[in-house]
Specification:
By secondary structure, this protein is of the alpha/beta class. It has 15 helices and 19 strands.
C-alpha cells in the first residue's frame, strides 16, 4: 500500500539533508494501521557527524548578539504559524490526535519560538559586592555547548520547539532525536528551520532507533547537556549512561496526576476541566489527571457529571470532522489501559460509561472515554500511570486523607485541586508534593510558566525564564586592577 505521505529523509546534519540510501524507519497511522511514510534511520556515524557539526557551529552561533539569534526564531515562528494546518495534518496522521487538537499543539509549540526570541534579548547577570575598591565580581550566564534533545511521541511537534527554542536562543547548538513512532513532524519542522537560514550545524536531526541514536548521544564527550521527555524507566537509563561524560541531564518524566474535588467546589466547572485534562490526546499526556479523589458526600453526583461529559465525546479517526478523541498510539498502549480497567473492575469498581471500543472501530486501536467509580485506592489504575482515556473516581472523607492519597506516589509532576475555599486552596495546594498544581483548572502548559516535576518525575523546567536558564551555565568573573 502506498504511504499517505511521501517518504523522505530523516537526517538533517550540518545544514543538509542526507540518508536517502539508508534503511527506512516506517511510520504508521494509529487510527488505520496504514503506512504513513518512512524516514532514514540514523547510524552511529550519522549521530557522531551531527554532534561534530553542532560542536563546530557552536563558537560562531554563541558569539552572535542575542538580537541576531532572535531574528531566526521570529522567522521560524511566522513560518510555523502560516503552515499550521499542514503541520497539523502530518501530526494527526502519525500520532492520531484530532486535527483541531493537533493544530492547537502546533500553534502552542510556535509560541515558544516567539517567547524565547524575546526572552533572550532581556539582560541578565549580577554584579556582586566586592572585597576592595579595586575589585569587581560579576556573575554571568553563558551557553553550554552541544545539547541533545530527545522528544516523545505524544506531543511530537510542540516538544521539539519547547526544547529547541530556548536552547538555540541561549546560544547552544542542538541535535534532536524524535520518537521513532512520530518522526514526520520533526522532519517538517526542520524543513522550516532550514528555510529560515539557520547557519549549518546549529540544528541537527537524527531519526532512528533509541539504542543507536540515544546510545551515541549519551556517550559523546562533546554533548554537554541532554534534555529528555519520556518515561521514568528510560530517564533512569539516560542518567546512568550520561554519568560517564558528566553531561547535565534535564528530565521531564512520567506522572500519575491526582485531582482533589472538594464538596464546596463548582462541580460543573470541575467536570468540564477534568474532562479536558483526562481525554485530551486520548489520555496520553504526562499531566493527564490519572486519579480523581472526590469528597464522599458528592462522589456519586460528580461521577454522573463526568460520565455525561465523557459520553458526549466523539471517538474516531483524527482527520474526520467532529472527532474529539482519537486512537491510542498502538496495541501495547490499549492493552495496558484495558489491564488497568479490568483490575479495577475485579476489585469492585463500576463502569459508568465506556469501557469498550466504539462500534465499528478496531478494539486494538480505540477505546471509548471511560469513567469508573468505587475504585479502591490500591487498584493498579490508582497506583500506576494509565496513559489512556479512563477516569477513576475514588472517594475520600477529609483533607488529611485526600493529601495522603494524592501524595502517595513516586511521581511529582502535576496535580489538580477544586474548591471555592481560598484558605483550603492555599493550604492543600502548597501541601501537594508536585512540581505544578492547578487550582480550579485542568491545564498547566503555559509558555511563560515553569513546566516540570520533582521526585520520580524529573527535575528540569521548560517554559518562561526558567526554561532559558535550564540551557545556561553560570560563570563567575573576579576582576582585580
Amino acid at each position: 500500500m502506498a504511504p499517505e505521505l511521501s517518504s523522505g529523509t530523516g537526517l538533517y546534519i550540518d545544514g543538509a539533508w542526507r540518508g536517502q540510501s539508508h534503511p527506512g524507519l516506517d511510520v504508521f497511522n494509529p487510527a488505520t494501521g496504514h503506512l504513513v511514510g518512512s524516514v532514514a534511520a540514523a547510524t552511529k556515524q550519522d549521530v557522531d557527524d551531527a554532534i561534530g557539526a553542532a560542536a563546530r557551529a557552536f563558537p560562531d552561533w554563541s558569539g552572535l548578539a542575542p538580537d541576531q539569534r532572535s531574528g531566526f526564531l521570529r522567522s521560524a515562528y511566522q513560518q510555523v504559524v502560516s503552515r499550521s494546518h499542514e503541520l497539523a495534518r502530518i501530526l494527526t496522521l502519525e500520532q492520531g490526535k484530532p486535527i483541531a487538537e493537533a493544530e492547537g499543539e502546533v500553534l502552542w509549540g510556535a509560541e515558544f519560538l516567539l517567547w524565547y526570541a524575546e526572552e533572550i534579548r532581556r539582560p541578565w547577570g549580577e554584579i556582586l559586592a566586592s572585597n576592595s575598591a579595586n575589585q569587581r565580581l560579576i556573575a554571568r550566564r553563558r551557553p553550554r555547548g552541544v545539547v541533545a534533545c530527545i522528544t516523545p511521541w505524544n506531543f511530537p511537534s510542540s516538544m521539539i520547539l519547547r526544547k529547541v527554542a530556548p536552547a538555540i536562543a541561549a546560544g547552544n547548538t542542538v541535535v534532536v532525536k524524535p520518537a521513532e513512532q512520530t518522526p514526520l513532524s520533526a522532519v517538517a519542522l526542520f524543513e522550516i528551520l532550514h528555510e529560515v537560514g539557520l547557519p549549518a550545524g546549529v540544528v541537527n536531526l537524527v531519526c532512528g532507533e533509541p539504542d543507536v541514536v540515544g546510545g551515541a548521544l549519551t556517550s559523546s564527550r562533546h554533548v554537554r547537556q541532554i534534555s529528555f521527555t519520556g518515561s521514568a524507566e528510560v530517564g533512569r537509563i539516560i542518567v546512568e549512561k550520561a554519568a560517564s561524560t558528566m553531561a547535565k541531564v534535564s528530565l521531564e518524566l512520567g506522572g500519575s496526576a491526582p485531582a482533589l474535588v472538594f464538596a464546596d467546589a463548582d462541580l460543573d466547572l470541575a467536570a468540564d476541566k477534568l474532562s479536558f485534562s483526562k481525554f485530551q490526546a486520548s489520555g496520553q499526556t504526562c499531566i493527564a489527571v490519572n486519579r480523581i479523589y472526590v469528597e464522599r458526600s458528592i462522589a456519586d453526583e460528580f461521577g454522573l457529571l463526568l460520565a455525561k461529559r465523557a459520553a458526549g465525546r466523539r471517538v474516531g479517526n483524527g482527520l474526520d470532522e467532529g472527532v474529539d478523541v482519537g486512537p491510542l498510539i498502538d496495541r501495547k498502549a490499549v492493552s495496558k489501559v484495558r489491564s488497568h480497567l479490568d483490575d479495577a473492575i475485579s476489585r469492585g469498581a463500576r463502569v459508568l460509561v465506556g469501557g469498550g471500543a466504539p462500534e465499528g472501530f478496531d478494539p486494538d486501536r480505540f477505546l471509548d472515554p471511560t469513567v469508573v467509580v468505587d475504585v479502591p485506592p490500591d487498584a493498579l489504575i490508582a497506583r500506576e500511570e494509565t496513559f489512556g482515556p479512563v477516569a477513576p473516581i475514588i472517594a475520600f472523607d477529609d483533607e488529611r486523607e485526600a493529601l495522603e492519597l494524592a501524595n502517595g506516589t513516586e511521581y511529582g509532576l502535576a496535580a489538580y485541586l477544586f474548591t471555592r475555599d481560598l484558605g483550603r486552596a492555599y493550604r492543600i495546594g502548597e501541601s501537594l508534593d508536585f512540581g505544578m498544581v492547578a487550582v480550579n483548572d485542568g491545564a498547566l502548559g503555559w509558555v511563560q510558566a515553569p513546566f516540570g516535576g520533582i521526585k520520580g518525575s524529573g527535575d528540569g523546567r521548560e517554559g518562561g525564564r526558567w526554561g532559558l536558564e535550564e540551557f545556561l551555565d553560570v560563570q563567575y568573573l573576579s576582576f582585580n586592577f
